[in-house]
Model the fold of this input.
Amino acid sequence: MSKQPLDISTALAGFDAIWSPRIVANINDYDVRIAKVAGEHVWHVHRDTDEFFLVLEGELDIALRDGEERVVTLPRGSLFVVPRGVFHKPSSKEGASIMVIEPSGTLSVGDEHDEVPEYVDVTTGHPL
Done:
């Protein structure tokens, strides 16, 4: 990782792929990832870790199955933490840019997931 400040807007301008997170920083054993998103991700769960979402641009919906099925809507500047063990499915009708923080090595589709469409990158994150 760089020892210089990173401009997030410039970093986001450096790639176009959706649902394909880029690692912009490491904090202890955690990755800070940015991603462009559009359409629907896939229902998935992270059994042993929470997942932090921050919306940088646009709007993100996160469907949750946590005793009931519900959707939280995150406008620009909003954050939400999906608790470990909760099935969730992020989506964005108009497209969004997000930041995600989770333990290094965490797969983008979790430990268990529905069938993964071609446009969703199954990854632990790509270097910026």
